[in-house]
Every structure is written in structure tokens, then in C-alpha cells.
Amino acid sequence: MFIRQISVFLENTPGALREMCELLGNGGVDLLALSVADTQNFGIIRIITSNEQIDKGLLLLRDHGYIAKVNHVICAGVPDRPLGLCELLALIEKANLSVEYMYSFMRASHEGEAALIMRLSNGEKAEKLFQMHDVRMFSQEEVDAL
Amino acid sequence: MECISRDELHKIQGERLAATVKREYENVPVYRERMDAAGVKPEDIRSVEDLQYLPFMEKTDLRDYYPFGLLASPQEEIVRIHGSSGTTGKPIVSGYTRNDVDVWSEMMARTLTAAGATRGDIVQVTYGLGLFTGGFGAYQGADRIGAMVIPMSSGNTQRQIMMMKDLGATMLCCTPSYASYLGETIREMGIDPKKDLKLKAGCFGAEPWTEEMRQRIEQLLEIDACDIYGLTEIAGPGVAFECLEKNGMHINEDHVIAEIIDPTTGKQLPYGMHGELVFTTITKTGMPMMRYRTHDICTLTADKCACGRTLARMGRIVGRTDDMLVIRGVNVFPSQIESVLVGADGVAPHYMLIVDRVNSSDTLEVQVEMTEEMFGDTVAHIENVRKYITAQIKSVVGIASKVKLVAPKSIPRSEGKAKRVIDNRKL
Fold first, then answer.
1. Of B53, B90, B166, B294, whose CB count within 10 A is highest?
2. Do residue A84 and residue A130 come from a single domain?
3. Residue A81 shares a structural domain with residue A53
4. ipTM exceeding 0.85, yes/no
5. Which residues contact B315 (CB under 8 A, 6 or more apart)?
């Protein structure tokens, strides 16, 4: 089960992130989760928003000259207690998968679980792994309700 | 002659060079003065290797000694004048003796033959017939072969197409941009080149063009499109020509000697390296040219072509010396970097070169705009794209650069000649 994420290319210049957030905010796009991957030269912004706002956000960004794409990522539920994440990571490691990036929702916890967005080296394999081990994966509808 | 061994060719070139230099020294005061100043006597020039001791000629020399100051034959032996407009002030002109017209016709005959022309062909000449060398050059070459010439000259596209169709023209000579325009018009008129026309090939030149343009012309007109190179100062079109292998232009080396030099030092560069193309005529008598600097940048190769010709080939013109940068002692042409970007999938051809000097070492930053195709949601993906571009630039240009990916449309666009370089070095 995958959810949709918008990724955006930003140049590493002062105000670039604020400008983008302003654009989305003024367009009524509510950010449920956001991560900033920065390198010396550029940044990649990853955004989770409700399903109905994804296309709106994407269009808005593209209309304003941003390079933006929709990718599919997993949103997994992790027990909200010490070592909760560790157990999941151990599972991923054992299956010879690796985490390319991971971030969490603005609203920390949901029924005792933290919702983490992650991209693993092999999406399909990860999905099967999580299903097998009863790792909770949020659907797009559930994300919308967060 | 076109398949002669390189050794034999060099022997002939050496003999012809010596005779031409002697003629220039004896008949043209400018050449005498320059050779004296360089301490070179005509008898010092005995082989192709001695060419490097001779002084260069420039386009400005043709202006300064306009119109007849560089003639090496008495004026009554001149049977033709051709010239080019030149962008500033006076045109430049060149005088041709009967021999020169003959030599030029031979070069153009080879050019058309290499594109597949024979006696039975019908050659439509759409280059302007006038002071410009294009029209007459193509006409003379076709005439030499014994083909049928349609001397249309330029303009009146509808009439061009009507004649092409009615007379069944098989070869076309014009500029690549006009060939492309003709092709588009033909398609718009609903003419099917395969059914309604008999065109099989074309020789296109007089302006730089790209491989993409070749493919477009070949598709539009259903023909083989061959590149030709020439300049009024040396003869006209036909100085170099492509065969149907379309892998560089064969230089008519029994009539001209080509060199590649470092535009800064004037020193000869080995084959395969990018540098300024220099021509020396060795059979012309009216207005011979000694080491004429074209300011065009390309490479030369003497590898035998698959067509069997041994004549050396010049690559596409990649730029002009005026655009050249010297970075860490290496000559860099913005067009080389452009060619890398155009050749890479999904990369936009918009770029900016920023040259600077940090700790007395030159740095080159290449700014490239991010595109949808290049973008991905992981840093690793984008870094791979960046590394790929960096490696490509390194392999083509020969120096390391720092590729910076910038926001789309952030590099200024301009009509006509775009500004591509910011040089911040304070020398």
C-alpha cells in the first residue's frame, strides 16, 4: 500500500523554502508532512498532503515554474514507545533493504502510533515484508484523516 | 587523387606549397614583407612540415588590401571576382584566374560526386548566383560532372518546388535552413517526396548546422543530406565535403593544406584536438592564401574513411575562436559544453559558465537548469545526474568542472546571441 508524495526541486537560496510554502499556503494546500533534503547546492522538498490536494498542489507548483513530481512512498505505523522504530528498522535490515529517506507527520501520534513516511530501496519488497510482519501501513484515506 | 596514399599526397603538397610560396613572395609585396619579417625565404619552404614557419593571414588583411592588393597574377589574367558581404563596412573580394575557376570546379565536382551525383543527375542550384560563391560553385561542379543544371538561384519557393517537380530534380544545393524550409513547404502543399519528387541527395552548407537538423531535412525531403564547407577567401564551397558516410568532411588536400592551431599561441596541434582551422592554398594562382585563419573551431582526422577516400576529414564546426575561454591552460569552447548538454537525455540546453580564480587556480562552474526528466525524489538520483554531466563535460572538454543544478528558467534567455559566460577572474 503506497501513498502519494510530491517532491520539489529547490535551489539552495535564502527564502526559497518560504516562497514555496507561501505559494502552497495561499493556494489552500494543507501540508500534513514535509521533509527537506539539502545538499550544498540544492534541496529536495518532499510533501504529503491529503489526496484531494495533491493534484492541486502539483499544478500550482508547476504553474509557478517549479520542477515537481509525484512519487509513491510507504507510510508505516510505528509503536509510539522506546525501540518502536528500532524493531521496524531491524526488520528492514534483515530483508537486505535500505532506507533512502524517512520523515514523519507534523501531528506526532495517532492511536499510540507514529506515522513515518519512508522510501526504501525496493518498494514492492518492503510492502510484502510489512504485510507479512503486520506492520501497519496507512492508506491514502487514513492519511487524509490524520 | 581522392584515394592517394598519405605519403604520396604529402609529397605533392610539398611541391605545390613550395611553388605557391615562391609565387607569393615574388608577386605580392605583403607576403614578401611578412616573410622577410619572419626571417623565412621561399627556398626554406620545401615540404608540408615547413608550413609552420610561415606567417598567418587574417580576414582583416583582405579588407586592408581590398580589392586587388593580394593578387599574385597580373590583373588581366583574372577572369572572375567573387566576394562576401562582410558584416562591417567594405566587402571582401577574391580574384580567380582561369586556373582557379578550374580548380574550384574540380573541388565542387568531387563534392557532388561524393553525395552520389553522376552524369545523369539533375542538379537544382538554389544558392544565390552572384557575387556569393555558393551558386556559381554548385553550377560549375555539376557542369564539370556533365549533369543537368537548373540554375534557380535563391528565392521564390513556389517556383522552386514547381521546377523541382516538373523537371524531376535529383540533387539539391542550398543552405540547410532553406532545405528545411523547402521540406516543410512541400509537406504543407501535400506533396509526397517519395511519390511526387525524384530528389535523392543534397549538398548543404554556407552556414553551421547540427545533426538534428540533418535528420529533419532527411525526413522531410526523404534524401541524404551532406554537409559542405567553403569560404570565398580559399575558393568557395567545396573546400571540404561529406561523402555518404556522413562522418566528417573530406578536405580537398591536393588543393589546400589544412592545419589545426592553438588560437592563442599559433602553434600547430596534433590531429584529433580541437583548435582553429587554418587553410593554405597550393594550386591557386590569382589570389593564393598563406595560412589563412578561419577562426572556426573543429578537429581533423586522417583516418581512412569507410568510403575509401584517404583525404583527411574535418569535424563539424563547434564554435568560433572569439568565444574561446582559456581555463587552467586548456582551451574551452562554450559550444562544446552545449553539445554535451544537448546530447544528454532530458537535459535542457540552457547553461551558464562561471569562471573564477580561487587561490591562483582557475575554477569552472557550469550552471544547468533542472528539468522534470532529471529530477527525482532522492539526493542520490540527482547526484548521479550531476556526476554524469560532470563526467561528460570532463571527457569532451578535458577539464574538471563543478556542475550546479539551478531552478528552471533562472538562466536568462535572450534573443539572438545568448550570453553564456561570466568570467570573474581578475587578471
1. B294
2. yes
3. no
4. no
5. B248, B298, B299, B300, B301
Same domain, A26 and A81: no
Q: Is residue B63 part of a domain?
A: no
Which of B371, B382, B410 is the closest to A44 by Cβ?
B382
Distance CA(B273)–CA(B286), nearest Å, equals 32
Query: Which residues have a Cβ under 8 Å from the Cβ of B8 and sit 6 or more positions away?
Result: none
Chain A residue numbers with beta carbons less than 8 Å from the beta carbon of B382 are: 9, 39, 42, 44
A79 and A44 share a domain? no
Rounded distance between C-alpha atoms, residue B227 and residue B406, angstroms: 36
Contact B376 A101 (CB under 8 A): no
The gap between the terminal CA atoms of chain B, to the nearest Å, is 50
Residue A80 is predicted with a pLDDT of 83
User: Peptide bond before B74: cis, by omega within 30 degrees of 0?
Assistant: no
Q: Which of residues 14-53 of A touch B (CB under 8 A)?
A: 37, 39, 41-42, 44, 46
SS3 content of chain B, % helix, strand, coil (to 5): 35, 25, 40
User: What is the DSSP pairing of strand B92-97 with strand B122-125?
Assistant: unpaired
The phi, psi pair for B349, rounded to 5°, reads -80, 15
Q: Which pLDDT score is estimated for B341?
A: 86
Residue written as cell 529530477?
B375
CA A101 to chain centre: 9
- The whole domain housing B252 covers 93-320
Higher pLDDT, A136 or B271: B271
Task: Please say which residue of A70, A89, A120 terminates a domain.
Answer: A70
Question: Is any Cβ of chain A less than 8 angstroms from the Cβ of B427?
Answer: no
The answer to whether residue B77 is domain-embedded is: no
Least confident of B64-68, B87-91, B206-210: B87-91
Closest CA to A39 of B223, B44, B383: B383
Please check whether residue B83 lies inside any domain of the structure.
no
Q: Are residues B184 and B293 in the same domain?
A: yes
Residue A43: φ, ψ to 5°: -130, 150
Residue B387 in contact with partner chain A when CB distance is under 8 A? no
Tell me: do A83 and A140 sit in the same domain.
Answer: yes
Domain that residue A111 falls in: 72-145
Mean pLDDT of A41-48: 92
CATH code of residue A109: 3.30.2130.10
Which grid cell is B328? 587552467
3-state secondary structure of A92: helix
What element of type H or E holds B231?
A: none
B188 and B295 housed in the same domain: yes
B380 touching chain A per CB within 8 A? yes
Q: Parallel, antiparallel, or unpaired for β B148-151 and A31-38? A: unpaired
DSSP H helices, B282-378, are: 334-343
Total domains present in chain A:
2
CA-wise closest residue to B334 among B418, B408, B209: B418
The residue count for chain A = 146
Q: Tell me: the pLDDT tens digits for B348-389?
A: 878 899 999 988 889 999 999 999 999 999 999 999 999 999
